[in-house]
Design brief:
The protein has a single domain (13-282), classed as Rossmann fold. Helix content is 54%, strand content 14%. The chain has eleven helices and nine strands. The chain has helices at residues 22-33, 45-57, 72-86, 109-119, 121-137, 158-181, 199-209, 216-229, 234-246, 256-267, 272-282, and strands at residues 13-16, 37-42, 62-66, 91-94, 140-145, 185-192, 195-196, 232-233, 251-254. The longest helix is centred in the middle third of the chain and has 24 residues, at 158-181.
């Protein structure tokens, strides 16, 4: 794909949260290969250090920091630190996210606090903290990672679906605000489908460490996700995202599954929940 010179990431300072693994790690590598300067963060310091070392080997200038995106004060301070380090910030990829949860009946408040804290408030914190710097750069770009479940809700992961729908709505509102204000900031929402990361396994492990009862159905669901749904290599997903950013796209669908779901919801907005419930019922152990 040809890249627009206007939206090229070359020499841009790009912030990536959740860079220690998965899509975040591969975003760092894609950006490094295309000549960006990187500010990488994650709560997992070992994974973050591995990402940073490989990005530097690709020739990138890299700043790293351990960051909990749910900590508002920490994210605000981090934005100023990155701006001070590089002198400018052009792009923020609000990528950090967690999966998990269960039915509304079985969920406890800790599920909502954890999932909404990372997936929604992490995006809010990152956007609010970096937006003044992006505006000041004269060539800013906010990239917020939603999900296939920001297009279509799914039973059993209501908190996750709620967080990803909220990211979509927030990002679309932000885009309108930037246009109305005339600010030089592009805004992109990303909807990945099934990408081969450890997100499903990590969600199960969090529940296990918290002392939750892990059922055979929980384990079967995780296996199903890992073996059947999470198929696209994270490297390919990241390439699609950065291609979309360089093309100036407002919306990036990652994978054929995301495209099919988007079409289904558009064609059958009132009946897709019945279709989804039937499909899920058919694959229960």
């Amino acid at each position: 794909m040809s890249r627009s010179a206007k939206h090229s990431v070359r020499s841009k300072v790009a912030v990536v949260t959740g860079a220690g693994s998965g899509i975040g790690r591969e975003l760092a590598f894609q950006l490094a290969r295309r000549g960006a300067r990187l500010a990488l963060s994650d709560v997992a310091e070992v994974g973050l250090a591995e990402t940073a070392a490989r990005a530097r080997a690709l020739g990138a200038q890299v700043h790293t920091a351990r960051l909990d995106v749910t900590d508002r004060a920490a994210v605000l301070a981090y934005a100023d630190t990155v701006a001070g380090h590089f002198g400018v910030v052009h792009q923020v990829y609000n990528n950090a996210g967690v999966a998990g949860g269960t039915s509304v009946e079985d969920s406890d408040w800790a599920d909502y606090d954890r999932i909404l804290g990372v997936n929604l408030f992490g995006v809010l914190h990152g956007t609010k903290a970096f937006l003044p710097h992006l505006i000041a750069s004269g060539d800013g770009h906010v990239v917020n990672v939603s999900s296939l479940n920001g297009l279509m809700a799914q039973a059993g992961i209501n908190a996750y679906s709620a967080s990803k729908f909220a990211v979509r709505g927030f990002t679309e509102a932000l885009r309108q605000e930037m246009l109305l204000a005339g600010h030089p900031v592009q805004v992109t929402v990303v909807h990945p489908g099934g990408v081969r990361t450890n997100i499903a396994t990590a969600a199960l492990e969090v529940s296990r460490q918290r002392g939750d009862a892990i059922t055979a159905e929980d384990e079967a669901r995780t296996r199903f996700y890992n073996e059947k749904l999470l198929r696209m290599p994270a490297e390919q997903a990241a390439r699609i995202v950065v291609d979309g950013v360089e093309a100036g796209r407002a919306r990036v669908l990652v994978g054929n599954d995301a495209k099919v779901v988007d079409l289904l919801v558009r064609l059958a907005p009132a009946t897709y929940p019945r279709i989804a419930a039937r499909l899920q019922r058919g694959r229960r152990p």
